[in-house]
């Protein structure tokens, strides 16, 4: 069983807190990024899946984090946790070290969005990020990009509930 890290948020009320779980799938130069957004009660707000081109798994994971930042800004979720199961992506997006040239634009975009809002990047083990991983499979196999804002598929709803436990 995987232990979970409890996060204590101090300051303003957490009633407007949003958690965005993101993941990426990668094969060749093709990738799919996925984001599952939940409110502080664990209820689904949105699921997004889109295909993109990528040079590496790490670039795809950073693209997912950047898309989560943009989704948070677009929806006015200015107080959010962005979770990824990629320790490398979270580490690279959280450090002040100069990133590799090929990833610099992605890291710079993430830094910009973090400076505009109260966004916290967190690593989560894959077992705790299964909802985003499942949406990744759906997105990778899909011919079109998608965003669900209601009428979520039952399997996604069930997985999100189990992720919240």
UniProtKB/TrEMBL annotation:
Q: Which InterPro entries match?
A: RNase_H-like (IPR053151), RNase_H-like_dom_plant (IPR044730), RNaseH-like_sf (IPR012337), RNaseH_domain (IPR002156), RNaseH_sf (IPR036397)
Where in the numbering of this chain does the RNase H type-1 domain appear? 22-138
Q: Listed GO molecular functions?
A: nucleic acid binding; RNA-DNA hybrid ribonuclease activity
What SUPFAM superfamilies does the annotation carry?
Ribonuclease H-like
- Identify one Pfam family in the record: RVT_3
Name the PANTHER family on file.
OS05G0353850 PROTEIN, POLYNUCLEOTIDYL TRANSFERASE, RIBONUCLEASE H-LIKE SUPERFAMILY PROTEIN
Protein name (Swiss-Prot/TrEMBL): RNase H type-1 domain-containing protein
Supply the source organism's classification: Eukaryota, Viridiplantae, Streptophyta, Embryophyta, Tracheophyta
